[in-house]
Design goal:
single chain, mainly alpha, Fumarase C, Chain B, domain 1, two-stranded parallel ribbon, binds arginine
């Protein structure tokens, strides 16, 4: 098949060049957007008197036939098509004859691939946002169920302070909330239509780019034609947001892996989200959590790949830019699947409170609370810290807890403290008293849940 751009060539491409040059293997994913873009383009051409109304009708009917044939599997693209834009245009000409040759008036593949890419990404962002929102609802529900269930809070992977499980969940809720915000703002920036920018400099023909932008659901046309065909930062915006969110997923996934270990035994993940071993009959492995922890690697890779492709490229279009697609598609697929799997895994996981309880009296989780009791006795915090530090030392030697120290031992450390000045330092009392704004007290966690739910309910994803 002769190429659509073959006019000035005497020889056809070498076979390995054809293969190396082609993007059709992966950009055929854009077929629907490409056809939709062409329908809008020819509609505008007719409105502007650049083609006649009957030419437009023939072209649109031809494009619709092609759409049907792609979806029914009648059209199979091959390397001969080079890319989806030429794959569709050449079939249109085969289908309706010479009138099909008018479609590519006042546009270029340089703007065409960009309008397709943006339309596709906008749709996928909506889907990802929907999944993130559902995930956030699952987190809220779990946080409600565990709003007053106490677990160990860590720093440096050492016992630090008691927190509620609901509180820990709500920390992730905030991270995914920011991920949603990032995605919304990336969407807003990419919501401009590059179609009609042509190769790089616009056209002498009397087009109306506002019409096509409107027909395709963009807020406006892009401002500068050269930027329109050179910009890939809308992909990078998405890939950055994806990388950050996948990083969040991987952190939580890591916690699932160790919560699930024999050493912790904090959780029970449903059998349907675990796998067995081909040799060790007793095994139940948290493979989903491990995959979720690992998948971030490919998304970082996708981001770094495109940043590297774009680095140092001069204006305007360069074929390097064709390398914008595979990584983007990979990141979309990976992020989408990861959110869904994580949401389901979270829903199907129960915390083993009996096991967690055994850990709560280890590591002096209430040490800071004791120091804060002393502050209430008007002991400066730095001194209170010192006193509790010395109490810890004695308890460690004696193998006991703060409550087991007697008045003599306490007074020997500091005459201002007695057994009764310790106050109620049970783990529950400590958690319930952490009512500072954003703190872990169940009452405060419930406030965070209400605010979170209000925000989620008010989100309008149908952009
Ligand atoms: N397949 C190309 C891409 O994705 C389309 C644009 C090609 N333009 C060109 N002048 N060769 O980037």
């Amino acid at each position: 098949m002769a190429s659509l751009w073959g006019g000035r060539f005497e020889k056809s491409m070498d076979d390995i060049v054809k293969k190396f040059n082609a993007s059709i293997e992966y950009d055929q994913r854009l077929y629907r957007n490409d056809i939709e873009g062409s329908i809008a383009h020819v509609t505008m051409l007719a409105e502007q008197g650049i083609v006649t109304v009957s030419e437009k009708d023939e072209i649109i009917a031809g494009l619709k036939t092609i759409l049907k044939d792609i979806e029914s599997g009648k059209i199979i693209f091959s390397v001969e098509d080079e890319d989806i834009h030429m794959g569709i245009e050449s079939r249109l000409i085969a289908e309706i004859g010479d009138v099909g040759k008018k479609l590519h008036t006042a546009r270029s593949r340089n703007d065409q691939c960009q309008v397709d890419g943006r339309m596709y990404l906008k749709e996928e962002i909506k889907e990802i946002l929907n999944r993130l929102v559902l995930f956030e609802y699952v987190i809220l529900e779990k946080a409600e169920n565990y709003a007053d269930k106490i677990t160990v809070g860590f720093t440096h992977m050492q016992h630090a302070q008691p927190v509620t499980i609901g509180f820990h969940f709500m920390a992730y809720f905030q991270m995914f909330r920011r991920d949603i915000d990032r995605l919304l703002s990336a969407y807003e920036r990419m919501d401009l239509c590059p179609l009609g920018a042509c190769a790089l400099a616009g056209t002498t023909l009397p087009t109306n780019r506002h019409t096509t932008a409107k027909l395709l659901g963009f807020t406006a046309p892009t401002e500068n034609a050269m930027d329109s065909v050179s910009d890939r930062d809308y992909c990078l915006d998405f890939l950055s947001a994806a990388s950050i969110s996948m990083m969040h997923l991987s952190r939580w996934a890591e916690e699932f892996v160790w919560w699930n270990s024999q050493e912790f035994s904090y959780i029970e993940i449903d059998d349907s989200y675990c796998t067995g071993s081909s040799i060790m009959p007793q095994k139940k492995n948290p493979d989903m959590a491990e995959l979720l922890r690992g998948k971030v690697g490919r998304v970082y890779g996708d981001l770094i790949q495109l940043l590297t492709v774009m680095k140092g490229t001069p204006l305007a279009y360069n074929k390097d830019f064709q390398e914008d697609k595979e990584g983007l598609f990979d990141a979309i697929d990976t992020w989408k699947a990861s959110i869904e799997i994580f949401a389901n895994m979270l829903e199907k996981t129960e915390f083993r409170m009996d096991q967690i309880e055994k850990q709560l009296d280890k590591g002096f989780l209430n040490a800071t609370d004791v120091a804060e009791h002393f502050v209430k006795l008007n002991i400066p915090f730095r001194e209170a810290h010192e006193i509790v530090g010395r109490m810890v030392k004695i308890c460690e030697v004696k193998g006991c807890e703060f409550e087991d120290l007697n008045d003599d031992e306490l007074q020997a450390i500091d005459e201002r403290v007695t057994k009764s000045s310790l106050g109620n330092i049970s783990i529950e009392a400590c958690v319930n008293a952490r009512t500072s704004f954003g703190g872990t007290a169940p009452s405060e966690v419930r406030r965070q849940i209400v605010i979170g739910r209000d925000w989620l309910d008010s989100l309008e994803i149908n952009m």
